[in-house]
Amino acid sequence: MHDHPKASWKSGQAAGCDFCNLVTLVIQHASTQHRLKSIDMPTFNEHGDKIDTNISVWWGRKFDRFVLTIGYFTPIKKGENTTYTITACPEKKTWLLEAQSAKLTDRSSPAAINLIQWWLEDCKKRHTSCTRATDGFMPSRLLKISDGMVKLELDIQTTEPYVALSHCWGPTKPIKLLENNLQAFQQGISETNLPRTFREAVKTSQRLGYEYIWIDSLCIIQDSDLDWKQQSSFMASVYGNAALVLAASSSRSSEDGFLRRTKDNSALDHLPGITETCIKLRRRGRSRRIERSVQLRLEILRSHRGPLDDRAWAYQEEAVAKRYLSFGNLEMMWCCTEAIHSEFGSHSSQHVEAYMRMKLTTLFTSITDPRSLGTYWRRTIVFMYSCRKLTYQCDILVALSAIAQAFHFKANLTYLAGLWKEDLLRGLSWYNKRRSASQQQYCPSWSWTSVGGTSQYYDYFGSLNDDSEPCAVVVQAGTSPATTNIFGPVSDGLVVLRGPSAMATLKLNTTGEILQATSETFNGVWSQFYKLSLQGGVYQDTPLVKTSVLLRDGTREISARRLAFGESIQAQDDLQTLENQTTNVWILPLHFVSDGSEIRLQILVLGRDEMDPDRFQRLGLISQRVRIEGKDKIDTFHKVMQREMVCREFTIV
Hints:
Elements: H1 9-14, H2 18-33, E1 52-59, E2 66-73, E3 80-88, H3 110-126, E4 141-146, E5 149-154, E6 162-166, H4 182-187, E7 189-190, H5 196-207, E8 212-214, H6 216-219, H7 225-232, H8 235-240, E9 244-247, E10 268-270, E11 279-282, E12 288-290, E13 293-297, H9 312-320, E14 323-327, E15 332-336, E16 339-342, E17 345-348, H10 353-356, H11 360-366, H12 370-386, H13 401-411, E18 415-416, E19 419-420, H14 424-427, E20 431-432, E21 455-456, E22 469-470, E23 473-481, E24 490-507, E25 515-518, H15 520-527, E26 537-540, E27 544-550, E28 556-562, H16 575-578, E29 582-594, E30 598-608, E31 615-627, H17 631-644, E32 646-652
Helix pairs in contact: 9-13, 15-17
């Protein structure tokens, strides 16, 4: 990018600067196209008194593609704020941007199949990581494609390339494999009896030269709990060994299909003075009138995304696939381990690192040490997965098991119901953004999988590899798998921690807002360093209710517990009496992290288990942040906390 102090872009254009020429043409053309009033060309001088200009190359929202954004706006008093987005590929390759190509409106056309075939063949020829040898795995059942029908074949002895379908079932349940139609499916299923999404997946696979396809509802016996548990444990292998995964991203159900015609609503407009092969301006998005100003935001849309990408199951299906072809709302998108292609252009892997990290093979190449992988799991996998939807919440662990299995084999970590034993203290420091969810009955309370909604971790001073100082010690941790899939659902699990702790008073409310906790013991620790008491907000895992727990000595302790699965808070005591009630809870510092001038301390909030008073249930998290300058003060704080607070052992279930 050229800097022309005290000179306009127009002057740069006259001087022969290609970039200034680009800026000038875009602004002139956009002003005419969108009927903006005549404006002076902006200067690249921050002190210019007429128009400011901001030019940047950035990564599109939701990892779509690189775009060049030229934003310019008049002073506020003039009330105009306009942003334009272009993509470019000049002949001199000055910018790492690419020209747009015409969008296909018919995905079943020969042109569309030819484009997919080109992506596929290019990948096979040039991408060594995509053509890696498979482990010889074959699904126990596959559908063989023949003219007008598919036949279910069992235990194929040879290794055959196959396609796997990723799709939304939707409210209308698709045709299913059952125990009583297994033999009939082996005789053949007419394509006319398949829902539209299945028919189109079969037809696309056949046109691409594949004889076999795997579709979950037709290859797993849906009324056999045993078969479902066995087959679901192989999801990493099914999707990871598929030659291609077809994703019906734009379809809400199996009846929608994904080859329907699409509208080209992204009107391509040629810039004057620039050849067609170099620059095209595309308006993407809708104009919005905000107050008195006109805002034309040409944002990158989630063009290759759709309803499927909100589903939890689809997250691992995409992550483990070596080749993934998404039929999105606006365009087709190809993603393999070395490149991304779309109808609007192609991008090499160096340009798409953020998106490609979702592909596990690429992730494991760029991040190799177990600690960093644990951090990536907490910061990215947990957040991206937990914000997606599940029809059956009991699937929360099995729908993540393929990714968990891949992490385990790469880093040799011990999996514990969504957490890793080797990273447990940091892993326990999650908090739930949506506190209206009830506890799920399938997971231990210390796991983020025990609550619905999006779970996440604090970003410690912007550091990915957050080096923290432990306050507690992991004495024991383990789970009992409920099936043969050791990365799937669990029947029980416990974590035993030992560390400095204190009793605290927790004030309840019925609004789901952040609760307030106070502890005289903990305040004594804080007061030696900073005039701050533990008035910290408790991020409650679920709505909490008051409970009375019978202790071993015959006395009772008024504590709090999570709202049980399927329980309504209205069924508790009168809301007026419940509001602002105080209960006794325990606080257990897990670890703290520091940047040298301040620390952030992560504290578990625990309540006694009603069934066993010697055990505890996780209730929430406190994240206490305070300025304590100097490493010596931080070290002293740690020692004082160990001295002033009683060391106890907690068994958390």
